Each structure stands twice: as C-alpha cells, then as structure tokens.
C-alpha cells in the first residue's frame, strides 16, 4: 500500500471514530460500486449521512477541506443515489440524505485535528 | 458567527464615497466570494488577501468567506480595498476587535508577503473619510506623509497586515519588516518655475500684459514669430502669481495624488504649470479612462497655469474640450459606469505663430505661406475658444535698438508679484460682497451695475466700436473686465478712458 493510501485510511479511521463519538452509527465504510467509492455512510437520527474524508499531514499545501472540490462532491452525490437504490432493493429504509465533509490534519508526531462540516452540498 | 465590518473609500474624480465592507463566515467548504461590483483588480483581492493573511501569521478560516462591498451599485476600482477586506474578515473570525475595525477607515493594497503597498489618491481619500465623520484612518507607511497633510483626522501609519491586526487588538508578536515606498516618478522640469521676468529683453508691452493677466486671472493669447520670446514669457507667468491659499494647495495636492505623482510632506505653495505637448489628445487634456477616470493636464493645472505652446498644432477636439472647464471651472467626465468631477479653474495661456512659416506680419521678413495656409492655420483656434481669452497680444521680435536700450527699467519677478498681489487685494476688497475673487470671473451683468461700471464717459471708444460692429457685447464685457484689472494695477478707484483704451489694445492687438 502506498504511503498516501495509508494516510487516507488512517484519516478515515480517525474521522469515523470522531463521528461515532458524536453519536452517529456507521452503516458502511469504503462502499464501492462501478463509478467509485464512498468513504463513510452513517446514520444520524433519521438522516443518512454520506461523508467525504480528506486527510493531510500538515497545512503546507493548504487545509484539507480546500481540496474537497465541487466535482468531488457531485460525484459523491451520484454515488449516494446508487447506494440508496441498493438499500431500497434490500428493503431497508433510507430517510433524508445529507452530505458532509471531514478534514483531518494528521501529523506524524502529534494528535490529529478534525474539522467537520455538515450539509456541504 | 458575527458579521465583520470595515470601511474604505471609493474615489470618483476628486470626490470619495465611503464603502462599507461586510465579511461573513459560513459553515461551508473553504471559498472566498467577493460581491458588490468589483472591477478586475479588486476581484484579484481574493488571492492577495488570502496569501497576505497566510504569510502574516493570521490565516483566513477554512470556511466560506463572503465579502460584500456596499453600496453595491457604486463602481469600485483598484486594489486600495485589500486592507479593509482583510480586516473585515479578521473581525468576522474574531481574531481582532470588531468594534475597533468598524470605527476606522482602512486604505492600502496588500503584497503577497503581507506588507502594505502605497497607492495613488490617498490624499482625497483621507479628505473624504474626514468629511464622512471618521476620526481615524489607517494608511500604508509609504503614504503616511501625504495623508498627514489633512488636518483634524488621526492618521496611523501601518507597515504590514500583521501590524494592522495588532493595532486592532490581535494577540501577535510584532515582526519588523521593511516598509514599501511609493515608486519614485521622474518629473519633468516644468514644476520648477525657472527664470525671472527681468531676463526678458524688450517686449515691455508683453511684460505689462503678463502682469495684467496675473492680476486679473485673465486668459491670454500670445501671437508672434518664432524667436519673439513667447515661450519665455509664458514660463514666467506662474512666477508672478501669488502663493496658493491652503484650500487651493490641498486641491492641487489631491489632483497630484490622483495622477499618481508623489505628494511631499508639505503642501505646495506655488501654483502649478502644465505644458502639454501639442500632440496631446482630448483625454490627455481634460482627463479620461474607461474604468478609473484619471485627471488630465487641465485638472493638474487647476489653480495654476495651463500653457499650450504652438496652440494651432493641437487637435481641434482637444482645444475645444477646454471650453466647458473655461466656462464652469470644473471638468465633468462621463463614462459608461460613472461621472467624475475635477476642479479646473486654471489660467489658460496660448501661444502661436502667425502662420506655418512664422514670418507673417514681421518686419523685414517674407512670409512664404499662401494666404489660404495662413487663414487655415489660425482658423484652427476656434472662435468660441478665442472668445473666452481676454488678453490677445502680438509679440514682435525685438530689434537691435531695443537690445541696446534694455537696462534698468526692467521689472523683476519679485516686484511684479508684489504689484500683482496689491492689485488682487484691491479687487478682493471691491468684490468682497460677491461670490467672485478675480476680475476675470465677474459676469457681464455685474459690470453694468453701479458698483461694476467704469467711470462715466470712459467707455466712449467702446460704445463706438460696438455700434460699428467691431466688437460684440461679450467682447465689450471682456474689455471692461481687463480695464478693471488695469485700474487695480494703477491704483485708481474706477477705470477711466485711459484704462479702457489700453484694455481695448490688449484685446485687439492680435486681430
């Protein structure tokens, strides 16, 4: 596994932990289909939350949230639709959906900082 | 999160309007949105402010930042809003005191390293801030001396964005940086009024006429062959004008500041001289520009002298563009998105050769121009323009006899300036109950009132000329105005037939 992928996985685990502590329930992680991958799918009350996680080790190349572009979010929105179809096909409820972004700054030698934005798209 | 507010000034001509800058931070992905009719240079403030904030150690929040420039309908130009935008954003974030930021006006362009760059037009902007009731203004260190010319407002000199944030209460350690200075502009020598009146040989009529022009504020037209000393005479007019009054000096400095010329730490005392080249366009003379409207030579000559050498060589459009400012004393320039106004109460000085070869009318010289070429040449100076010129004088080449006679009787500039100041003082006392200060500005109707008419019977020669149709009614008024100035110079109560006769000569000499 390349270093950048490893960092991404680590960031996703940190983000997941953070969201669980906030009371969200994980439904899926790294859900894949033909058009791509969703980092995290969680339940927040009666909402289904799709989360894009971006991780960086520092601010040298800007804040991780700055790297989450509209193109990325539009793809996540399409993927969310596909996820919901699968879910409904299995006869499970979906409820309202929401798209969140989580920026993780995870330096190698210090505790990670997490920046969570709700309903960004 | 609260909305951050800061203030800046949008300049339109010499007037400035206060622009309120609001900053809002919303919980969305990082973005920087600038709204409220910014032009291209102002739109780029986005990237300048973000980089400057980062490099000053006060990074902007990684959220969506919306900056609104209000009133939105007012067009805003240039980079002078950078500092206010950054401060409004810091205030919205809570990095600095929001009350402190909202109370002062911020002027300055940001460099990417966070240092503040000086900009043109700071003097009129600070004046506008004071008019709007602000007590404090933050300016780049490079403009501090210029801004300090405005009394009754506190000017704070700021070197960098970090300094500004600290001034507003941010908890940061100051970092010493090299302040940026205004790029020095090479200035041609016209500002220095070189030469003294006593250096002019012969031409006593012209020297006298020059003093009349200076005393009454009359426009002047010099016609003569090459080498007669027209340019020499013209260059000495500012030298015999009285010193500028403080309000006029401030206006002169404002125009210089808008034109991007350096404004020194003290107000200029001497009237300016502008001598544009005859290839100048109408926009170069009166001012122009599609987005940012800049002052032209006529505005830069306000409260001083606009000298057009080789006047017939100017484009007719450029000359006739001067008619409106000559009449009203202001220049209004209308463009698609705004109208700018500049002061333009200047004294016009025209010089011309009588024909393309220059020899027409001179003794012992043969003019090689055809009659048609001669007529066309001076015909380029339009009637309406010349009609506004009170003094029209023919300047002959001097002769060997005059050269030998030249001696002790020559007037020097200091003496002439004294004489001019005395005459102006007499005019001011006489006109103290009227809105006018100089004889040249008095309207014709006043010249026919009891206070303004020449002494009884003095205008006999003019009445006859008027009857014959040799002069118009407007010409009549202009001659009486010059006669008043001659009376002020002579120290007599009211112009008599002597003054009226000499005034007629000064008006008709070129015809």
What does this structure look like?
The complex is a heterodimer of chains A (121) and B (511). By secondary structure, chain A is of the alpha+beta class. Chain A has a single domain, classed as Trna Endonuclease, Chain: A, domain 1, CATH 3.40.1350.10. Helix content of chain A is 32%, strand content 36%. Chain A has two helices and five strands. Chain A has a five-stranded mixed beta sheet with strand order 1-2-3-4-5, with helices on both faces. In chain A, strand 2 (36-44) and strand 3 form a beta hairpin. The longest helix of chain A is centred in the middle third of the chain and has 20 residues, at 70-89. The radius of gyration of chain A is 14 Å and the shape is globular. The termini of chain A are far apart. The mean pLDDT of chain A is 91. Chain B is an alpha/beta fold and 511 residues long. Chain B folds into three domains: 4-167, 2-Layer Sandwich (Ribosomal Protein S5, domain 2), CATH 3.30.230.10; 189-420, P-loop containing nucleotide triphosphate hydrolases (Rossmann fold, 3-Layer(aba) Sandwich), CATH 3.40.50.300; 442-511. Chain B contains 23 helices and 18 strands. In chain B, the strands form six sheets. In chain B, strands 11-14-17-10-18 form a five-stranded parallel beta sheet. In chain B, strand 15 and strand 16 form a beta hairpin. The N and C termini of chain B lie far apart (76 Å). Chain A binds chain B through residues 59, 63, 65-66, 68, 73, 101, 103, 115, 117-118, 120, and chain B through 27-30, 59, 62-63.
Entry keywords:
heterodimer, A: 121 residues, alpha+beta, Trna Endonuclease, Chain: A, domain 1, five-stranded mixed sheet, 5 strands, 36% strand, globular, B: 511 residues, alpha/beta, Ribosomal Protein S5, domain 2, Rossmann fold, 3 domains, five-stranded parallel sheet, four-stranded mixed sheet, 37% helix, 16% strand
